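Lab notebook, bench 4. The sequencing result for the construct came back, and we need a structural model before the next group meeting so we can plan mutations. Quick request posted to the team channel:

Model the 3D structure of this chain.
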Amino acid sequence: MKQAVSATWGGIALSLCASTVTAMHLNPNGLGQVLVYPYYTVNGGYTTFVTITNSTTIGKAIKVRLLEGYNGRDVQDFNLYLSPHDYWVGAVIDAGNGGAAIFTNDASCTVPTLPTTVQTALPFTTTNFDGTGAQAKDGGPIYTTRTREGHIEIIEMGTVTSSATLDAISHAANGVPENCPSIVAAWASGGQWTLDPTKDIGPPSGGLFGNGVILNVANGTVFSYPAEAIAQFYAKDGRGEHSRPDSLTPNISSATSATADICTDDGSLSLTYSHPVDAVSAVFMADKIQNEYWTSKSIAAASEWVITYPTKRFYVDPYFAVDGARAPFDIQFTSANGGTALSPVDLDVFNREQMGPISFGGFGQPPLNLGLAYETQIVTFGQQQSYSKIVASQLVTGIYSVAPFENGWAELNLAGQYGQNHRLVAANGNVLIGQPVTGFWINQLVNGSVNGVLANYTALYRHRLHVSCARADSAPCL
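Done. Here's the predicted structure in token form:
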């Protein structure tokens, strides 16, 4: 469920946007069956910490899925088993081999068992995009550097219904689970879950929440964000999929609920789709991304926007979209497109004193190749290089030279003059306009050393998303 953008009508819209009992929605309270973390990175000396909390009294089987930023191919997957009220944290670090790696000093059960030190961290894999795995090459880079940044999704696979399994994952007095090796053995050859993955696993029940923390010790900077939470991802009382640790499913397209509750400025809508992944996309749909930027030279300000398409791969990746790209996206991710899948957008920029907009059109005038090319990307303001200054991202889209004012705000139009394909049509003919997005603005100020203390400051602000719906005759849905 998305909060209305309008300040004037915000309070009224919230009262109109209550979710139905069985429809999928983004939970503004942060609890759900699925969590989406818009960004992880190990570039520029950063480490990304990921936390997952089970707020319920029931044990959970959870799929942890780390996805690279170009096309959202899996670079590390594992199963996590949380006991009631359990909490887990992992660290994504520079692997030293050009890519990323993960380790944890948390005792909760994982399959496979994750390393516990920086020195032994588990490197991310290129298998799912270099042609050596079940998925063929997708036309993007095949090197380990591709694993260095992306986003994360957490999928609840089910609840633990057996007392023996619950005892195994529950923590003893010393804080260590009773029998994690038995959980690992259950997925080994001849193990109980290899033979029957539904054994001792009941329907998902939600109640997960999480956070991402991106830390640079050398620069003295840190920024953090809450994970987006999808509630009612599964149809009421529906089963999830408890799968082996390296399975490509369940993923964010594996919803069994095909109805989504959407909150627009005019009120709430409940829309049903023939493909459940479209219902997932619907809860993230927006026609405009709005946020601020600061680039004041006097305080060495820098601003970057993280923009992630959490479902894009299911519309553009040739592994999933075998017959070509489909709306609300434009072209397939292929080598012919330079290892990208560009979606044209328009940008309006305003300053703080009512000047503007200065408009930049996708493929129009001024002559900018303005578009969002990746599944996870960075938009920078006032930077002249093709990589980002704050998070050192290599996934900078074609907006990095735009900052006609030193400080102000911007509006990224996902359904502008070249975005006619950016539409998601529901079964009743209602059309959500735009694309499924999430992300945030990162702001950094650098004051150097103040009284011998490094005085760098960072802040993070979630994007404001405008949601728009029209009928087939272009009349408003409400």
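The chain has two domains: 27-252, 258-478.
Will bring this to the meeting.
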